[in-house]
Fold:
Amino acid sequence: MSSPKTFLLFSIYLLSNFFASPTIGQIQLINKEIDRRSMIKDSIDLVNHYNRLGVLFRTRNSDSSFHYGIKAKHLATKLHYLKGLTDADLIIAHSLYKKGLYAESLELLGNLLADYKELNDTEKIIRINLDMAEIINKEIYDKNEIIPLLRETIKLGDQLEKDSIMSEVYMTYIRLGPKLSKDSIDHYLERSAEIAKRYHDVRMQHYNRMWRTRMLILEDEMEQALPRVKAMLESSRSSGNHSMQINCLFQMMAFYEDNPRMSLHYLYQAREVAKKSGDKYVEIYILNYGIGIARELGDKDETIYLLSELKKAREEEWEKSKKFFSDYIKFNTIKEDNRLLNEKNKQKALWIIITSLLALFTILVIYLIMLGKSRKAKAQIDSLNETASLQVIAMEEMKHAAIKKEQQRMGQELHDGLSATIAAIKHNLEGLYMEMSDPVLKNRLSNLTEDLAHAYALARDKSHEWYLAGEKQESSFEQQIKALVDSALPDGSYQKSIQIDPGSMRQIDLDTRIVLFRIIQEAITNIIKHAKAKRISLLIYEEPHHLSLSIKDDGDGMPKKNTKRNKPSMGLQSIQRRVQLLNGHLSIQSSSKGTEINVDIPFP
Structure:
């Protein structure tokens, strides 16, 4: 039966190297992945290639795993490839744990957990939970943290479509979870074995068999355990599973606890396997234990030899550690690069905002320039429309004037010509009627006189109508002004008083009427734009030698003149220019109670 010391050594090594159990299949996968590198052209694919190699070396060589994780992280950082960056950090976190940097590894895993939850990657969350359980077990050995974490991990397994990782979860629960009964251990071992068999996971199948052998040793069933150990040892040798060989050799040492020489024999075999695997940490572990056995034997030469080999192994491990820490410095440099990159991105964002604001300002300036041009064009169009409207008004006035003259001429001719002739004939017929004695002819003359009287009345009425119709044309100007005021100043918003003396229009020609019309139009425009008035009065009347126009409102009054330019507004300039065109006189009185514009235009 093995002593507690030897069995404890066996158990510690077995548990600590669970994740470092390479198989022939893994080596083939690694070689295949390396061979396909030359065919990779895309940078994203290259990041994924480095990450796949990091995962494959995870269970074989932590230095190589860390190396490929660093390469993937560096390239993913340049490419801003978030998924590749996250997967690389998971590889690096495991390598840090294997090198004893527990706090650094745990911090990195905690950050990655949030990232994978956001990506909804359940399998990677389970992997992080398993790694965190291992680190907590190594660093603080707190079951109160490990057990809830593993139970949560088992629940997460229900969400997986491909549950191959659950074989490892159940084995970890047996090893690091709560103290279980033999039936519970058998239950989880069976579930783990079933999954490992389904996915052809040779590593987990070997580990399952080792755990069952361990239970036989715990139950002191050495006769049943020894054949199992020998069979697993042969199997691990043929498959090249170095970790399995070392574990089996430690178990063989447990059977020869009472025979130090035989125990030392198996220890040397374990050391040779460790040297082949390149795992200096395991080799140093074995040499330390061998020194204890040699001292127990009292063999000085053996002790000196083992001490010498231990020194060499430590020196070689130190060289490897220097390479690892060099890579670790690169890892921290990449982290700093990430931080600087975030700062740079913030600066870029600031510059983008500034550039956007400058672009908006430029667009605004261009818009204002275009608006100015548009306003200038509008002013030109308005001027053109004004000219056209003046021409239309002139033509309409000319037409009305022609009609007026023609109607008056026809009315005058009808009155002076035809009506006078009819009146003379009627007078002669009345004389004949008085001289006539024949009753029949007299009756016929009487009828003829009545018809002629009727014709005279018709001619007279028509001449008056035509003549007065020409006179009524004078009222068209008054109607135009009223239409202009009513369209611009609706009754619902303004109280208006419009009084125009019809006779005052007779003494002014067409051109004067047009200019007067535009003066009124401009005055009303100023009222609308500036006055804020409610009451407006417009009066046109005749004075002995001139026509008077008065426009009054109750608005705010005109603003004070600009002392620098001392110029009236464009509207007032337009009114002044038109009044001067007619040789008239303009006066303006304005206060806070309103404004009154008076225009006097001399008759021709």
Summary: The chain has a mean pLDDT of 79.
